[in-house]
Amino acid sequence: MGSLEDLPLRPELRGRTPYGAPQVPARYRLNTNENPHPLPDELLVDLGAALGHAALDLNRYPDRDAVALRADLAAYLSRTSGEAVEPAQVWAANGSNEVLQQVLQAFGGADRTALGFTPSYSMHPLISAGTGTAWVDGHRRADFTIDAVAAAAQVREVAPDVVFVTSPNNPTGTAVALETITDIYDASSGVVVVDEAYAEFARAGTPSALTLLPGRPRLVVSRTMSKAFGMAGLRLGYLAADPAVVDALQLVRLPYHLSSLTQAAACAALAHTDALLATVDAVKAQRDRIVETLPSIGLTSVPSDANFVLFGRFGDASAAWQALLDHGVLVRDVGLPGWLRVTAGTAAETDAFLTALGEVARDHRTSLGD
Ligand SMILES: Cc1ncc(COP(=O)(O)O)c(C=O)c1O
After folding, report:
1. Contact indicator for 68, 267 with CB cutoff of 8 Å
2. Residue 370: predicted pLDDT
3. Separation of 306 CA from ligand 1 center, angstroms?
4. Domains of the chain (ranges, CATH numbers)
5. Staple 133 to which of 32, 81, 108, 328, CB 3.0 to 4.6 Å?
């Protein structure tokens, strides 16, 4: 077998490692921010029927423009945000990762720059590299919030072609105020992507950037069915933006990128939106329980509007990660010194996590305030 070193690989990809949380066997897997609740029975029945129906036409290519699905997604966004979103404003692909890749294919690329406020979702710089787009780290405060004035100044200075604002942010859970997003938008002449993969878990009073779309033709809001909808295996992500942005993405998307089975399954799932999202409150309750319990074991967390919590602080986060794994609980070491990230699971999973953490915290925590 040959080696990567010997291949004529693009220089900017040399030495990189593929994205992915370690898929380590563990009794409690709380490392990839999935929704732990199984799909409702009535949806499983409808999914079977919808897939069976779509299978009858599998000799044909799918609807290239996913018209029915985009109408269902627009209806969902309009209903939940209070902002009228038209099907022509919506675009869907295989996970929001593919949506973001298409955005970078259209608006990034050679001699272009993307900027995102780190620490944030590590795929943003990776997809940038994959599309030949230069990457610049945007600054956050020590508490992981974004300083609107400093962010706008940095955006003005760097003049990126694409700006990523992740709200709620992964891995910190931090929501970004709408005024901060508008300040960044006003400072930029590029496309501003608000990655709202976790929007449905936001606490009351945290509005979506969907409300900012009117009059902002360079604003893009991306969403996914992988998190709150509990359908990570479906691979369905989408965005809302000005229809001209959707036209631009159609220049770079592969023809027939979204299979008829995916489109049919997503439409069937969206018909059960209320039942699917019924688990969101249960997940939020476990998230808030984790946050409230941490101080009693000498640990702290970052305020979270997502379905996970960044918790610490540890003298050696990797050692604490291993100690939790030794107790059967797999969390995510996101590479932030002193911090680990845990997904809010079921009540039983949270019990197991908090019990294990109680046992390992004494040996690994720093004293609060360090
Ligand atoms: C902030 C953020 N955006 C996008 C994604 C990608 O989601 P998907 O491709 O499953 O839609 C994730 C997944 O973890 C994420 O954390």
Report:
1. yes
2. 45
3. 12
4. 21-37+279-364 (3.90.1150.10), 41-274 (3.40.640.10)
5. 108
